[in-house]
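Fold it.
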Amino acid sequence: MSSCPPNNKNCKPCVAAAPMRISTPPIFRNNSKLYTIGVVPHPWTTTSSDAFTTAIDVPFIHRRSNRDHWLTLVTKELLGTGVFTSATLVKFKEAVASPYGAAHSVWFTAEKEYPSDIDWHFGFLELKKERELLEYAKMMGTTPEQQRLIRAIEAWNLGDVEAWRFARAFMARRSMERRGWEEEERWVTGGKGSEK
C-alpha cells in the first residue's frame, strides 16, 4: 500500500508499475521533475576526502586544495565556470530556501547525523550510514591545533563554508517549523495522536 506524508499536499502515491528513478549526479540540477536530496560537506570534509588524508596543514590548504571546490562543482552546470562566489552563493541559497527550492529539495550537512524527524520530510525512516572519513570530520576540532586548521580551511573556502552554514541553519529552521506544526496539530486534535 502506498501513502503520502501528511505535510505534502501535492504528493501522489507511488506504484510498483512506475518505479522511481534515483540518480546521484555530481552537480545540482534545477529541474521541476526532480526532488533533490543535497548533502553539503564542510570544506574540511571535502579537502580531506579529495586528498584522501587527514594530514592537512596550512601550507597544504594553500598549495594543494581548490578554493570553494564543492560549491564550484555543484553549480557548474547551472551557472558555468568563472562565476564569483557571491553570485554562486545567491543561486545556491535560492535552491535551498526559496519556496520552490524548499518544496523540491532537502539539504543536509555531511558531518551531522540526519535529523531525527527525517521521516517527516520523506514519509519513511532513513537508514544510518557511517564512513571513516566522515566520522573523523565529525570529531575534528577538539584540539587547539585542529581548531586552527579548521579556521584556516574555512578562510580558504569562504563560499563552501557559507553554503555549509546556510544549509545547517535552514535545516534547523525546517525542524523548528515542523515542531511548531506538531504543536498546532496537537492543539487542534486536543492532544490525541500526539503520543510517541
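Residues 36-113+137-177 form one domain.
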